[in-house]
């Protein structure tokens, strides 16, 4: 694990929010993306992080508020009031072992990855390290074979599995049955799709093979990134 870089296993680009984001918006985003933490960024710099634990802690243990009153309260409180301000971070060139040690030391489940200028360029979590451990233990090449690499035909961004905004679990092209996504880089809808069964190479040419207008390249296992 010490020979594996954080950059090779982090999810990028990171999903971030502004300090003015409400708790309700943060909660909805976590549920939509199926994630547990959101870095808080202001003027391009990391100023905090909010987790599902922070959201739970913001809820009073004993309250007479109804569900709707509580939801209305979440719509008024911003994340800057509840976020963790002293964020433990890591650099992309650090080893995955360093990331694991930091998570163990600080009892946290994820680390924002920042560049030399303090900008958030990704995030690495316990799940990423578990996948790395499985890859090493099974003798496979140390890469995330379970998450396909996709190329957005609109902006050309190379994205990994969690860099995709899944519109809905049921949003599938009626013809090719691929799940439809939105590129997290350019926000272009219907520009990429994800294989449903196995990460073997497949290409769908926009307007010819499929009416959902996608261009997909999933890397074969062991292919160079």
UniProtKB/TrEMBL annotation:
Keywords: CBS domain. Gene3D superfamilies: CBS-domain (3.10.580.10). It comes from the Bacteria. Residues 10-65, 83-142 form the CBS domain. SMART domains: CBS. InterPro entries: CBS_dom, CBS_dom_sf, Diverse_CBS-Domain. SUPFAM superfamilies: CBS-domain pair. Pfam families: CBS. The keyword Glycoprotein does not apply. This is CBS domain containing protein. It comes from Roseiflexus castenholzii (strain DSM 13941 / HLO8).
């Amino acid at each position: 694990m010490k020979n594996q870089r954080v950059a090779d296993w982090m999810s990028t680009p990171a999903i971030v929010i502004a300090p003015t984001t409400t708790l309700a918006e943060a909660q909805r985003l976590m549920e939509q993306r199926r994630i547990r933490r959101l870095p808080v960024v202001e003027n391009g710099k990391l100023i905090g992080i909010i987790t599902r634990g922070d959201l739970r802690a913001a809820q009073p243990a004993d309250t007479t508020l109804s569900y709707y009153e509580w939801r209305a309260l979440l719509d008024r409180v911003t994340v800057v009031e509840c976020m963790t301000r002293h964020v433990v971070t890591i650099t992309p060139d650090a080893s995955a072992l360093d990331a694991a040690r930091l998570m163990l030391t600080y009892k946290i489940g994820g680390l924002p990855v920042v560049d030399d200028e303090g900008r958030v360029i990704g995030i690495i979590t316990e799940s990423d390290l578990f996948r790395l451990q499985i890859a090493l233990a099974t003798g496979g090449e140390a890469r995330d074979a379970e998450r396909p690499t996709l190329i957005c035909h609109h902006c050309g961004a190379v994205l990994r599995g969690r860099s995709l905004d899944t519109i809905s679990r049921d949003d599938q092209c009626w013809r090719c049955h691929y799940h439809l996504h939105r590129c997290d880089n350019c926000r272009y809808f219907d520009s990429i799709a994800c294989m449903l069964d196995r990460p073997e190479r497949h290409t769908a040419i926009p307007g010819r093979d499929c009416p959902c207008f996608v261009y997909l390249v999933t890397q074969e296992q062991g292919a160079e990134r």
